[in-house]
Amino acid sequence: MDNHITIEVDDKFIYNLYKASSTLWYFDQLIAGGFTGYNSIKFKDKNDVFVWLENIEIEGKYYKGVLAETGQPEIVLRKESVDWLLIDNQRLIGGYTIRHYYNMLSEDERVNFEIYCGYRIDHGNDFFRPDRSTPEGAIITLENFYNENNMEGILSCKDFYLEAENVMQEHNMDWDSEIHSKVVSVLRVSLLEDLENKGFPNFETIERMFNLIERRKDQELIEETLYYPDGFITVNKFWVGLTKDNGWKVLNLVE
């Protein structure tokens, strides 16, 4: 793995580091399950240089492997990992710092870079934990409940109070508690009627790629791109809000 590429540190790069950290659990799960393909984690060595550690074994709070450049054995604290990658069927999974660099290249440069790396770099698949500890995880949790036709679970991922505030703000409506209560009711009923009329959407065979579009107080606008097995692609943008006691909740869809 080449450690000598220059990466522009910007908001997108910082978000990619966040994605790497938030999806590391998936890497750990596969390694613990005996994944036999190429695998590696990235960390900063004693010379403050970011390097890759290959052929990972997990030993408690440590990663054990060999350095990509030298082949020397090394043991690293798991919390020091800043990125991870797997190669599955000649396809890059994870590798968020590599993806960031790849996306900075021209089309011709991307082709040459893939040839140099020896694997395919596509949209990827973001494996956030399916829980409400992150905005992206809240969206995945909601979609999993859709897969199960679990209405109680679906409603647990929503916060119609916050969503109504957003709707009123987007329509430049002055605050009025009575109107707000009506909007809350309309949003809830609309969701229930929509599911009754159209049925529950299914996300079981899709791949996901997330982007952070905007951030404001206790809310993030998350773009989710869905890739279906037949090649169909959809893009949705959701406001996701952080609640006081129940983690992140999925709010209104932004057209």
TrEMBL record:
Domain of life assignment: Bacteria
Indicate the segments forming the DUF2314 domain, all copies. Answer: 50-118
Q: What is this protein called?
A: DUF2314 domain-containing protein
